[in-house]
Task: inverse folding
């Protein structure tokens, strides 16, 4: 039974039924889903908006580019939009749900082939459905000494989707956008393009040199709806001869700001290669329930959190980094770090063979799901990440916390934020998780209002997100100004004149 409520805009029931039959003729009946019960995994969102605003009409799962080409032809014929996902686990950013209702999910999970691995150059070429867990198992089975640069939910998400949404990992490579090389992209008209060196028949350097010849177009297909990425190359980090996880405890926001300035200098001089710094409320939330530490109204008071930290023996702020290299290099760099932080923070070296905190495990190539514990903290299944870009400055970080924390508290939510330092030591992502109860309508309204104010106040102060959930894509696109938005619209009209590919992605429409 196909519900009238989720039909693509402008399409009647009979036309949609014919389109579904044509989709099934392409991929097989079992790979086209249109009944609402089976669609639940695709529209089960965590963001503070009603699921009906992101209800898909159905889902289609092709197993290769030729099937995608045929699906595009049917979609163009019936004017049915396609919302593409790789694994669909974009938690806190909209998961697999489309930006607007009435789109068909183009689910690329069946396209999960590891096409090539070069253990000498440390490059790979994979399809969108490949997960980090699958890739890690492949590296382990073949004794390849390479580490994956995976994000927090590493094992169950994949490098293609995470990179296209400009996600970050934790080892020395950090920003995944800085370490992909070469794409295969299908445009709305069925044209297939291999970017960069991939345009040369039989290219030997497709995963080695990203720029190719002429305009570099790969960026057009990140956070966009201008094409469907069907293959993507990556550079992996070679396993170092030695590594050393180092944690730095810091007592106050001011100390955290000073520490960030020190780390910027160390990063620019390649003493350190990665760093996460944040308030320890988030790691505490991974391990305890909120009700166990506070039952009052509103946000948890700072003095209550301080008591919890004292009991657990953790500082207010902590930084986590891992040194890579030879043992001799690690000894030298550890001394530089200790000297740099003398009198400011407590520097500790963690035993690599012992129990490591989740960030350190991420930094040394051990995929884990530890961070999912944070969703048990408040309960209710609500999560919306607010991710600002800041100049890499201690004063900017303290200012950003001073802007954002009161907004969280105004709406009764707990500030839980930290910094991911960019690979070239010029910027950092101030990432905050807005946790709330989706089953409580009043709390949903407050969460939406909280996120809305975070966005508007920060934009007015000269800051903006680099990545945002589907409920706020339009407002974020507006923040980047009419010139950028108009250019995106012109590109959309040129490459996808019928508006088939993911209307509303990043606020881009025809």
Result:
């Amino acid at each position: 039974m196909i519900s009238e409520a989720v039909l693509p805009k402008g399409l009647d029931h009979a036309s949609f039924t014919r389109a579904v039959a044509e989709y099934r003729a392409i991929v097989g009946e079992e790979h086209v889903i249109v009944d609402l019960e089976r669609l639940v995994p695709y529209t089960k969102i965590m963001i503070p908006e009603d699921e009906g605003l992101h209800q898909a009409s159905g889902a289609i799962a092709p197993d290769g580019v030729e099937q995608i080409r045929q699906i595009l032809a049917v979609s163009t014929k019936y004017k049915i939009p396609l919302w593409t996902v790789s694994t669909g686990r974009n938690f806190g950013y909209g998961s697999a749900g489309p930006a607007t209702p009435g789109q068909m999910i183009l689910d690329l999970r069946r396209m999960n082939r590891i096409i090539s691995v070069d253990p000498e150059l440390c490059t790979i070429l994979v399809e969108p459905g490949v997960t980090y867990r699958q890739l890690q198992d492949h590296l382990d089975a073949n004794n390849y000494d390479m580490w994956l640069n995976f994000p927090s939910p590493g094992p169950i998400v994949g490098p293609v989707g995470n990179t296209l949404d400009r996600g970050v990992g934790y080892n020395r490579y950090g920003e995944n956008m800085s370490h992909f090389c070469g794409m295969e992209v299908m445009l709305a008209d069925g044209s297939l393009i291999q970017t960069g060196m991939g345009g040369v028949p039989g290219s030997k350097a497709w995963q080695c040199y990203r720029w190719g010849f002429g305009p570099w177009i790969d960026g057009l297909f990140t956070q966009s709806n201008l094409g469907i990425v069907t293959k993507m190359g990556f550079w992996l980090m070679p396993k170092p001869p030695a590594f050393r996880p180092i944690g730095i405890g810091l007592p106050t926001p001011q100390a955290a700001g000073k520490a960030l300035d020190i780390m910027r200098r160390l990063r620019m001089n390649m003493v350190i290669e990665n760093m996460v710094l944040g308030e320890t409320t988030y790691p505490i939330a991974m391990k305890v329930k909120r009700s166990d530490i506070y039952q009052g109204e509103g946000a948890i008071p700072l003095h209550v959190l301080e008591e919890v930290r004292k009991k657990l023996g953790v500082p207010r702020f902590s930084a986590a980094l891992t040194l890579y290299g030879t043992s001799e290099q690690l000894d030298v760099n550890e001394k530089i770090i200790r000297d740099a932080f003398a009198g400011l923070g407590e520097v500790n070296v963690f035993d690599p063979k012992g129990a490591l905190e989740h960030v350190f495990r991420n930094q040394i190539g051990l995929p884990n799901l530890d961070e999912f514990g944070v969703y048990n903290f408040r309960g209710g299944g609500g999560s919306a990440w607010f991710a600002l870009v800041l100049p890499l400055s201690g004063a900017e970080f303290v200012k950003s916390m001073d802007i954002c924390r009161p907004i969280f508290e105004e709406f009764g939510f707990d500030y839980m934020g930290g910094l991911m330092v960019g690979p070239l030591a010029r910027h950092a992502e101030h990432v905050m998780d807005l946790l709330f109860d989706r089953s409580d309508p009043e709390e949903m309204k407050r969460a939406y209002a909280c996120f809305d104010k975070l966005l508007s106040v920060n934009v007015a102060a000269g800051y903006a997100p680099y990545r945002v959930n589907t409920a706020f894509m339009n407002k974020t696109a507006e923040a980047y100004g009419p010139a950028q938005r108009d250019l995106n619209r012109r590109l959309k009209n040129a490459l996808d004149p019928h508006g088939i590919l993911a209307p509303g992605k990043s606020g881009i429409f025809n």
